[in-house]
Amino acid sequence: MSFKDILNSGKFVVTAEVGPPKGTDIKEMIHHIELLKGKVDALNVTDNQSAVMRICSMAVCRICLDHGVEPILQMTCRDRNRIGLQSDLLGANILNIKNVLCMTGDHVLAGDHKQAKPVYDLESVQLLSVVNSLNNGKDMSGNDLKGSTDFFQGAVVTPEANPLEPQLIKFEKKVRAGAKFFQSQAIYDINKFKEFMQYARKFPVKVLAGIVVLKSAGMANFINNNVPGIRVPQELIDELKAAGKDKALDTGLNIAARHIKQLKEENICDGVHIMAIGMEDKVPIIMERAGLL
Amino acid sequence: MIITKKREVQELMENIKNYKSFFLIGCSECASLCGTGNQEAIDALTEALKAEGKDVTGGFVPKTGCQVLGTKVELKPFKEALDKSDCILVMSCGAGTQAAVEIFEDKPVYPTNDSLFLGNMTRFQMFDERCSLCGKCILDKTGGICPVTACPKGILNGPCGGCKDGKCEVSPDIKCAWVRIYERMKRLDKLQELCDTVLEAKDWSQNIKPRTLATRPEKKEEKKK
Ligand code: SF4
Ligand code: SF4
User: Fold this and answer.
1) How many domains is chain A partitioned into structurally?
2) pTM (2 decimals)?
3) Domain containing A171: what range?
4) In this complex, is the C-beta atom of A128 within 8 Å of any C-beta atom belonging to chain B?
5) Which structural domain range is residue B191 located in?
6) Rounded Cα gap, residues B45 and A161, in angstroms
7) What value does the CA radius of gyration of chain B take, rounded to a whole number of Å?
8) CA-closest candidate to residue B30, choices B109, B93, B90, B98
9) A160, B89, B94, B160 — which has fewest CB within 10 A?
10) Does the structure's ipTM exceed the value 0.85?
């Protein structure tokens, strides 16, 4: 079953992430793909994440397919204009890449080529409507396509954004532009996320909660001070602190598993998106502890 | 106005090292407000050039340095000093420099400033970029705040995920353009309008360079030809 069908079937889905490396040595990446095969329902492939130049998302998506894992092509508007984006979308579609996550993309100043010219000819809302249009057999200029695409398109949302309301207005614009599923920024406060879901349930879209493993109290504090749109509640920081250095990571894995379990058991959302950020090998452990394997 | 920034003397000297005598042209408009092309700036550069052993044959602050014909007429009385110089230095923006290039076909013309952006003066000699002259204004849809310019990604439909506590992902020193637009629309009781408006991708064909415009009725036709 495809990711789209699984999601629409009502099963609690799990997606994870693979970050393409900088360079052509893909042994480790393939190891991670193999590790997650058969466990997750789909794998996001990041698009030059944090504006750091790496292998392109499309090539790695195709490699995922070759290894029997369904990919979600992350596509940002930072590096390609509307011609490049549409052309890559057509290319991805004929390579059998059917899921696309539309994002505006981190600014080039965040990355390792700060002198690059940022493109941003389109942004996430507009890219979603372009995908919609390609699915309906027309390009952005209204020209007919010889064969339309069949993408299942999604977007991202930040339920803990501050201020929240402008973010929600944008969420609704994404829904209207054709987003079928959302993967959220990392969430740690389930009650607050419940409130967001009460609102999001009004729309005909599927929502996957973002899960990022906390490795230590230090990491949690760093997130609170530096990462936009994520807030780790104090009681989780205390829990990690109490666990001590040796057990902090294990506690972090437990927290992630506990959250996933609650999200699933209370039917709060439609699935989770686990961002392991270099700890891909821990994803099966989290899933096991959450009772998903 | 056009915001200009004076080049470091060292950089300027390197560019003009092959010339000996100079005529300096400022501008009484933007470059004067920026302090890069007023009489004081001309005097200061004259001193600096002399200190480097160069000659200054004269200097002048025309009314509007980018106005080709007007500047040409204003410079007529300086013919002798201009003739004596072997290089013209223009202390306004890139448009002013190129007006001089048009006026002085046979003389090298060098800029002393870098031209930065179209800016608002917020306080004395403090400038902000608020409009990037995109060619098709959307301020009527965004509460009068330009996201093409104020958002480093030029996003047209709301804040990105990088907005942190109302500040922009790119710099904590600037407020997120979309939080500003949201707050203004809220104050004007126009949030519904903000929700309902999805802005399409911009038509960048309005921005293909070089752009020209003729608004004098009898000239419009000529331009078309
Ligand atoms: S939309 Fe912005 S850049 Fe374009 S003309 Fe209006 S203010 Fe200037
Ligand atoms: S934080 Fe706001 S102003 Fe900055 S890039 Fe994102 S949307 Fe634009």
Assistant:
1) 1
2) 0.95
3) 3-289
4) no
5) 136-199
6) 51
7) 22
8) B93
9) B94
10) yes
